[in-house]
Amino acid sequence: MFKKTPNVKASSNLKNSERKKLLQSCKEQRNSSDYNFPSSIIKQANYKGQTSAGTVYTDEQNVPIWFKEKHSDMLFPSVYTCWKNPKLLPIIVTNSYVIEEKILNGANLMISGTLLPFDERLICGALCGIASYKKPNVVMAIGIVQLDLQSYTKVVGETGVAVNVLHYLGDGLSDSFKMNLEPPETGAEVDETNEMLLNQDKQDVNNELTNSNKDLAPDARPNDDLAEVLETLPVDIIDDFITKSLYYSLTNDPKLEFPISASNFISNYIMSNLPPVDNDMVNLKKSSWKKTAKFLRHFEKEGFIKLKGKNDDLVITGFNKEKTELKSFVPYRTGNGNSTKSKKDKTNDTSDNGDMMQSVSYYKPISLGKDLIRESVAPEKSLYTAHELRDFITEYINKKNLVDSKNKKMILMDDLMYSLVYKKKNSAEPRLISRADVIEPITKNNFNEHFQIYKKGDNETAVPLFKKPIRGSIPKVEIVTEMKIGRKVITRVSNFEVFHIDAETLAADLRKLCNGATTIGETLTSPKTAEVQVQGPHSQVIIKHLNSLSIPTKWIDFKNSVKPKRKKNKPAFNKPLDQILLQ
After folding, report:
1. Does residue 577 sit in helix, strand or coil?
2. In terms of DSSP H, where are the helices of 409-500?
3. pLDDT one-digit tens code per residue, 364-412
4. Using CA atoms in the order 230, 234, 240, 246, what is the torsion angle rounded to 10 degrees?
5. With a threshold of 0.85, does the pTM exceed it?
6. Any idea of the CA torsion for 95, 96, 99, 105, to the nearest 10 degrees?
């Protein structure tokens, strides 16, 4: 129903009598006497889509809660309503892959993709919700049941559409209201039995603590004066931090090149790629390994890295990218070598703090790039990191013995490597080339660049901004200061919506920060995006505000089109002063 973004007209508040009537209809249709609207103010707006038209009802915060089609009285709850009321609809459970790759891309739910058992209310024509088995109470889509599911005892081998999906998270309805709400971690309601058990466990723990405190000497009992910040972390936690940094360095740091000395690897990669922790508390000396050599030997024994050298004089020559831990590793926001001293020195630096968004570039092979992947015996997947591409190229060079025997820094390209490097075939181009000059043309000519942006989550984890990496290079927010007709200076901001910044919210913020009028429009260039315009030259204020929204300065382009005022030159004397006085 909302595969394409519908055209939604201006909303208006419902009268109190209409609101009560709508609430009664919702309760009757869903057979839920306990349901109530999330706010006292309910708005309605008419919409017109590609295949349907009707009315959308929203709450006070402009979140769509219910909708219905024209000439029909049947009301459909939105996924946002189902999050707060998980018992409103019977729910069909499926796996996460079906949710993320199929349902959230507009496909219907097939019977083979469902999981048993089925709710007895799931009969043909019933309204239902679709959720993942990992979060069975968090509805990600709603639709109409197409089969009598309660009669099915198995789904393997069965065919047919189980649910015709009408609305899902991130569809056109969500886009039209610019919804950025994230699904809850668990359902809104807790099972009563589990809640009683949880309370009983808490009571048992409290009783146990009370009894243990009675046995303690008066000086040994806990009190508020002993609540101090821990000066040290447990060794196992420190080991975990350092291990994660190793995984990150091997899989996601594009600057890492082999061979590399042990001291360089530890100082410039392991310590720099730690999660956001104080390096004074997390370092090798405080880990279970204590020394660099012992740390590296441990991971060599585990099959992660390859070493050369004796005693403490070690060199890392490579790593095993086939390790399961490295393949499944998810990147996080690094602390970039945080320490107590550096934090004090950078207190006033807001342009490059740890809360900034991070980006990761991925590359999709095309044409001859696929041949390179096959020749390198690399695992086939849709996207690769820059680090993986460099490994594939190095592996291919070593496999084909392309290194020049006279100069190890040069390679003698074979036919495939020659075609990868030179897009336009020209027999005059040399086949002997520096190894450093190979990676860039191969990547540019044979791979499509994609990017994913990560933001700081609630638990200090990196949360992807998009469902999938987006094709192209990382976009930049454009800021232009110019003079309009009438000699009025304005500042325009555009291309910010890709970072999930709402135009109306940005305009309201700039109105306060710049103490000037703001307007919202569209850019004149293609593709057209939202543009916020504020009166006056406020580029630095806007850049600082974007930094506070976690957008680093390197992702902001500023252009000043206002010509500086010309200085009036004093009239010069063409004649010598003595001649002027004699006149």
Report:
1. helix
2. 415-421, 439-446
3. 998 888 888 888 776 778 888 888 888 888 888 888 888 888 888 888 8
4. 70
5. no
6. -140
Tell me how far apart the terminal alpha carbons of the chain are, to the nearest angstrom. Answer: 93
Question: Is the predicted pLDDT of residue 161 greater than 60, yes or no?
Answer: yes
Query: What CATH number does residue 258 fall under?
Result: 1.10.10
pLDDT of residue 201: 39
Please say whether the beta carbons of 442 and 386 come within 8 A.
no
429: Cβ contacts below 8 Å, ≥ 6 apart: 418, 422
Closest CA to 320 of 427, 214, 246: 246
Residues 158 and 269 in one domain: no
Cβ contact 46:67 at 8 Å: no
Q: What is the CA radius of gyration of the chain?
A: 31
Cβ contacts of residue 116 below 8 Å, gap of 6+? 152, 153, 154, 155
Could you identify the residue written with the tokens 């996924």?
79
Query: Residues 387, 254: contact at Cβ < 8 Å?
Result: yes
Residue listed under structure tokens 């007209």: 9
Q: Are 274 and 342 in contact (CB under 8 A)?
A: no
Domain that holds residue 255: 235-355
* Residues 363, 349 within the same domain: no
Find, among 27, 155, 8, 150, the residue nearest to 88 by Cα: 27
- Amino acid identity of residue 490, one-letter, is I
Provide the CATH number for the domain around residue 523: 3.30.780.10
Label each residue of 276-297 as H, E or C.
Answer: CCCCCCCCHHHCCCCCHHHHHH
In contact, 443 and 388? CB cutoff 8 Å: no
β-pair type (91-94, 114-115): antiparallel
Both tokens of residue 7? 């055209």
